[in-house]
Amino acid sequence: MASIAREREVGFVIGFHYLAGIAVGLTTAFGAAGDAGGTPLDREAGVLDTLAALAERPDEEVDVAAAALVVAKGIYPDLDVQAHLRQVDRLARELRTSLAPHRAPEARLRTMAQVVYGDWGYAARDVLPPGVFVGFNEVLERRQWNCLGLTVLYIALGQRVGMPMRMVSGPGHVFVEYIGPPALHVETTDHGRVHARKDYLTGYLPFPHMELDDYVALNAKRTVAVILSQTALAVQNRGRAGLARQYYEMALRFDQGHAEAHAGLGFLHAASGSASEAAAAFRRAIELSPRLPEAYGGLGNLLHATGDLSGALDVYERLLEIRPDEPKTVFNMGQVLYEAGDLDGSIAAFGRYTKLMPGDPDGFARLAFPLEDKGDVAGAMSAYRETLRIDPTYADAHVNLGFLLEREGKTAEAMEAYEAALTVRPKHALAMAGRGRVLAAGGQTGAAIELLEKALALSPGNPVLWLDYGNILRQAGRLEEAVAAYRRAIGLDPTDAETHLALAQALLEAGNPEEARAHAARAQALGAKIEGNLADLVSRGDGRVGAGQGDGGGSTR
Fold first, then answer.
1. Which of 50, 108, 367, 411 could form a disulfide with 45 if both were Cys (CB 3.0 to 4.6 A apart)?
2. Contact at 8 Å (CB) between 520 and 498?
3. Phi and psi, residue 383, nearest 5°
4. CATH assignment of 392-493, among 1.25.40.10, 3.40.50.2300, 1.20.1050.10, 3.40.50.300
C-alpha cells in the first residue's frame, strides 16, 4: 500500500455543455404571455400550463417572443409579459417603417441590422457576472445578449413584419436563416451580417471539429424547445433541478426529437443517482443525434462512475471519432484505462493529453500514476516535477514526489518535498506521514510517532496512515500498539497485502505464530512475496517456527 496522494480526483465532472457558448452566463430563463397575431394568452394560467397550451398549437401560431417570455416567467414571477410583448410590437412597427422602401430580401436584412444594432444600439455580449440570470425580457431591457437572445429577437421581429426567419441550431451556436428565396443567413453576434451560405461558420467560430451538417434549421416549436433546454441548463447550473426537469420535459412536448433535452434529463438523473434512467436518456439522445458529444460524454462518465469500464471506453472511443483529440475525453480515457489495469494504454492517453493541454498540471500528475505502477520511477518523478513546474502549489504532487524519492533512498530530498507540501497545505496528512517516515528512518521514532498521530487525527479513515503508524511503533519496540494499528488498517482495507504481511511480522515477534501464519498466508494470497520465518510458517501450516531462521522475515516496502 503506497503512501501516495491519489485522493485528489481530477476527472471531469459530468456536466451538460450543449451550446456552451450560449449557456455560459445564460444562467437564465425566459417568461407567461401573448401569442402570434396579437391574441393574448390566459393571464391567469401558470407558466407550465401556458407552455403546454402553446405546445398544442400549430407551428404557424406559435409566437417565439411570447414563448420566450413565458419561459422567463418561471424565473421572474413578477415579469409583466404583456408589457414586454407590447415593446416587441413597438419595435416591429419602427422596423416596418424603415423597411418600407426596400423589397429585396438582402437589402431588407441589411436595413434590419442597421436598425437593430445601429439605431437601437443592440450588441452581442457572451459573458455575464456570475449568478446573473438573463431572459428574453432582459434582452429587451438591456439591448444586448448572445446569439440565442438576439436570434429570438430577430425571429420575433420577422414574425411581425412579414420577414420569414427561423433559427439554425448546432453545437455551440445558433443563428438566423431567412427563408427565401433566396435563403440567407444572419449572424446576430456580428452586427447582423448577412451571408449567402452557412459555411461562413467555418471561419467565424473557433470550433476545430465543425460539421456544417450539425447545424439544422428549426421551425417555431423546435426553436421554443431550444429556449427551454437552454433555460433548463441554466437553472440546473444554479441548483434548481426541479425546474430544470420541468423545462426539459416541456421541451420534449414542443419537440419529441429534441436530443439535447434527453441529454439534459440524463444529467439530472445521474446527479440524483438514477443510473439506469440516466443511461436510457443518454442513449435516446444519441439515437436522435448520433453526433451529440455531450450525450456521449455523459454516458461515458456515467458508465465509468458505475464501474462499467469497458462500456465507458467504448463510448469514449466513439466520442473521439466525433471530436478527435477532445482533451476531456482523452483525459477520461487515460483514467479509465488506468483503472482497468492497462498501464501502457493509460500512459499513452495521458501522454497525449499533456501534449494537448501542456499547461494543465493534472495531466502530468495523472501520467505519473501508470508510470510508477509500471516501474518507471524516473518517468513518474519527471511527471511530478513537470506538474510542480506548472503549479508549485500542487501539494499532492509534492507528496507523491517525496514518496518516490524516499523509496529511492533520497531521504533529504524527500523531506524537502514533504515540507514543501506542508508549506502549501499545513494540514496535509500524507505529507505529515512522509515526514514521520523520514524521521523514523533517521532513528527519531518519538518525533515520527507524534507526526503520525497528528496525521491520523486529521484523516482517521486512511489505512495507509495506520500502516505507517504501525511500522514506526514496531520500529520503536511498541509491538502491542503496532499490532493494534495494523488491525485498524486491515479493518479499513482488508485486501492490502502489505498490511497483512506487516501484521504477520509483528504477531510473530510478539509470540503469536498461529495468527501470524494466517496473516502471512493471506498476504501471500494477495500477491506478497513471503520470506524467512513467515515463509516457513506458511509452508508448515502448523504454527511452528523453523530453527535458525533469524527474525520474522517477509518483504517490506
1. 50
2. no
3. -65, -40
4. 1.25.40.10
